[in-house]
């Protein structure tokens, strides 16, 4: 990862530094230190927010750092099965067909499971590939292989995008 990219770890470090600077400002009575600490805290919050954001267009995901990923097919297929299942439930209710309602409810439930399976797959592979990218990038940096270091940075960023996309969808469902 380059220094200009947002990072959750960097946001935590900046937040801790802001807390220290705020405490120093309180001890010394320095309004300048307090104001600087407040600005650093706001920046840390923005960095954290940015590091967790993902743009989504269908199964394609893009992050502010330029990482790109596609969803596991089970996520899209599961979502589609939920939509069809809900439609069958509604039509079954309108026409008075209990079997169609049950079939729709079953398809909806299966779709939820299928989508969850895809989300977990994306989350797991995202975490794993992020670690591989970070470790590979560090190793390439130590050996001075800039091309490999850039390749590993891209692997890290793409994996982070995949992980954050799955996290966002999982959180959205938990909030619903």
Which H/E pattern describes the elements?
A: HHEEEHHH
Average pLDDT level: 85
Helix count from the secondary structure assignment = 5
Main beta-sheet strand count, sense and barrel state: 3 strands, antiparallel
What structural class do the secondary elements suggest? mainly alpha
Strand element count: 3
Q: What share of the residues does DSSP label as strand, in percent?
A: 5-15%
What proportion of the residues is helical, as a percent range? Answer: over 70%
Distance between the termini: 34 Å
Uncertain segments are: 1-5
Radius of gyration: 22 Å
Describe the protein in words:
It is a single chain. With 176 residues, the chain is mainly alpha-helical. It contains five helices and three strands, in the order ααβββααα. It has a three-stranded antiparallel β-sheet, with helices on one face. Strand 2 and strand 3 form a beta hairpin. Helix 1 (8-28) packs antiparallel against helix 2, helix 3 packs antiparallel against helix 4 (98-143) and helix 4 runs antiparallel to helix 5 (146-175). The model is unreliable at 1-5 (pLDDT under 50).
